[in-house]
Structures are given as C-alpha cells and as structure tokens.
Amino acid sequence: MYLSGHPTSEDEESLLPQQQPDDSLNTSRRSQWRDSLYSFSFQAFIWQCVTFLKPSFLGSPSHTPEDPEKPACPPRTPHSTAYLDGVRGVASLIVFILHWSSMSFPSVNLGWGYKDAKSFWLLPFIRIVHSGAAMVAVFFVVSGFVLSHRFVQRMHRGQYAELFSGLTSLTFRRAIRLFLPAFVSSALAFICVSLGIISVPEKVDGKPFENSLTAYLEYLDMESNPWTWAFDLTGFYNPQLWSIAVEFRGSMIVFLLIVGLAKTRTVVRLAVEGLLMIHCFTHKRWDVGLFIAGMSLAELEAILQKPKNPWARMLVNALLILTMVLGLFFCGYPRDHNTETPGYIWSKYVWPFTAYRRRFWMAIGAMLFVGSLASLPFIQSVFLTRPTRYLGRISFALYLVHGLGNRTIGEWLLHTCWAHIGKEDFWPYATSFIVSTVLYFPIVIWASDIFWRGIDVPSTNLAKWLEKRCAAPESVR
C-alpha cells in the first residue's frame, strides 16, 4: 500500500496545496515541540503563538511548511504541472470574489446587455474575474488532469508496479485530505451559529430547522456523502462545501479508470474516456465528465507534440490561443437570463436542450481553457509567478475559509462602512463596498494562510502517517 520515498507533487489533488514540508523539517519540529514540553514558559508560548500568526509570505517561521532561508536547500525546479498550482489559486480567488461581490451587487449574475445591465464588469471576458461557477468547473478539470498525469506517464513507460503502488497510496489518503479540513471549517461555522454570530435558515426542505449538535452531524453526513447524485447548494452551515463530496467521487472515478485502463492501448483509453464523457454530459453529470476530461487531456499531453517547423508551430499556437479565448468566453456564461443576453442568445437553440445549460457551457469552457493552456508554456509562466503560486498553496484553505469570513468579519465591515459612508446613492454605496473590500481581503488571505499551516498541512501529514501505520509488511505486499 505505501510507496516508500517522497511522493511527487503530482500525487496531490489540484484543489489542495502541493508543497509540503520535508522529513528533516518534520523531525526538527518534533524535537522543538518535545524540547518545549520540558522547558515550557508562558512567555515562550505567547511568542510561538505570535510567530505562528505571522503570514508565511512575511517570513518563514518554524511552523510554516517551507523554509526558503535554509542555505542547504537549493531552489526547486517547478514540476511539469506546477503551473496548475497558480491556476488553482486564481480560480479559488475568483470563487471568493463572486461570493463576496454578490452580497452587495447581485447583478454580477447578469450578463452585459440584458435590459439595463450595462456595467463594465458584466462584459464578456471581463466578467471572468467573478465567474466563480466556471472556476468550479476548472477545479474539476484540473483535478482529473493532476490526479492522472503521473500515472498516465507511467502507463506510457510500462511502469505498472510503480503505478499501482502510487495509486493505492493516493487512494488511501484521499478521503482524509479532502474531508478533514472541510470538517474543521464546518465545525467553525457550527460554533459561530451556536454563539449567535451567524444565522441559519428557519426552514430546510420546507421543515422548521433549529441549530443543534444533531443538525450539525446531519450536515456533516450530507457534506461528506458521495453516494447521492443530487446537488444541495444551500448547506446551512457552510454552503460552498457541496463540492467536496463531488470532488471525492470524481477522484474515485478517475482512480477506477486508471486501474481499468492502465494496460490498454492509448487509442482504447481515449475512446473509452471520450464515450464516457459523452454519456456523462447527456445524463447531466457534468462534474464526472470534467474529471474524465482532465484525464483525457493528460493523455493527450503525453502523446502530442508541437511541430518543429517555426511557421507550423506559430500556427498551432495561434489556434491554441483562439481555443483558450473561446473557452474563456464560455466560462463567462451568465447565471441569470443567459439565453436573453447578447452574445449568448444562440445557446438557447443549441444542444443540449434538456441538460443544465449553464453548467454545460461552463464545462466546455473549462475544458477548452485547461486543454489549450497545457500546450502554451508562455502563458503557463503567468501562473508560475510568486503571487499565483502562493495563492495555489493556500487555495484549498481559501475555499474553505472565505464563506464563513463573508458571513462574519466581511458582513460586519460592510455594514460598518454603510453606516459611516452611506448606501443611499450609487457613489456612497460603491465607496462603502470598495473600502470594506480593501480592509477585508487581507484578513481573509491571512486567515487562509493560518488555516493552511494549522489545518491543511497537518491533515496531509496525518494521512501519510495513517498510511504508514496501516500498511501491510513488505513481505506480504
């Protein structure tokens, strides 16, 4: 079950931070904590707490997963899917922007040109900055790509022993990596509800609802239930966590396909995956179709090469850029009145008539965007910059934290600005939003950084520790 050595970053899921502490850092931390137990002082405890609260981008305290100031550690060379860290980070930020901006401006869900909707931020392509639903589709494609990438490479090299060993390790750790941080996020929301800081609906499914430990446990069961095909987007403690069970289910389907197709020919794998994608989309399972699409894109990346002729390569790059532009256009598909919005009216008459139209076109957009990006290194470099890679490291934490932050600190800041600046006319209203945003965004990034170091990374370490403890002896593997 356990594959010895350090797992590569590609073994980690795309929603999750990929840069983890090495064994030497873990050993030094354990010794530091052990020493601190023998020489405990209140002053030292306070200092450790203050050091831990310092954002990781301001330095490298002992509790952070990385220590770039160590002279013995050479700079890391980005792995072949490192740019997807940045994609994931930007996508998570866009989801946050949508949930935050829609609190003050519900019109972000409209498309430009519908009736009086003429805001600059509603224009095609511009609206990508708050197209959070499309970013969920990007998450799923990236997940399928990253989860399968290393194993697809091993299929082509015939390294089946390493493939199955790595796959068992990743499958074992999967549930812990996804659900444990989500449960902590939900627990924080439950505590806030119990303290009266945030509210919950008076009715759920048409029945009276009261906050209680039983209600919270029922919510955890719903949040972690991968067996239902229904989407509940109105979770009463942490609504955005509906996607965690979907992520787990999609991951297991990718793992099953890897096992079932590992020893088949490439053309067979692509044919099976293509037929499954068509089947998924015709039955409204856009989420599963996106995971399989990510796996197919990883396969295509392994077998396709750009032409060596400069003019032919330039033509291919131009076609890929046009494909990406088309994908971004689909990713901006409006939520409300989409078939009445200029630029998208045609979608009313195009297949599929019976499917969830908005999710379908956003799924198409996500596949086109990620698929073209995989072959455009000069655009990948945008997602390899230090800010985007930092967002990638905290992206899962940001996804888990921002919903509760919006309902607590964010809402308080917004109402405070309304009280002091005003909200009766456009400019006071907009100024209040801008001021509260400037104050609030650094707080959410800081909270996400703490959650990443305090919950997310320890969850990864716990999953690896449990895997080692549960692994069968070498002699019986």
Brief account:
The protein has 477 residues and is an all-alpha fold. The chain contains 14 helices and two strands, in the order αααααββααααααααα.
What does it look like?
With 477 residues, the chain is mainly α. It is 63% helix and 1% strand. It has helices at 23-38, 42-53, 83-104, 132-157, 160-194, 213-223, 242-261, 266-282, 286-303, 310-331, 357-373, 377-380, 386-421, 426-470; strands at residues 203-204, 207-208. The chain has a two-stranded antiparallel sheet with strand order 1-2. Strand 1 and strand 2 form a beta hairpin. The radius of gyration is 23 Å and the shape is globular. Mean pLDDT is 85; it is low at 1-15, 19-25 and 61-75.
Record keyword descriptors for this entry.
two-stranded antiparallel ribbon; globular; mainly alpha; 477 residues; 63% helix
Strand residue percentage? under 5%
Mean pLDDT: 85
Q: Using the CA coordinates, give the radius of gyration.
A: 23 Å
Number of strands: 2
The secondary structure category is: mainly alpha
Helical content band: 55-70%
Shape: globular
Order of helices and strands: HHHHHEEHHHHHHHHH
What's the main sheet like? 2 strands, antiparallel
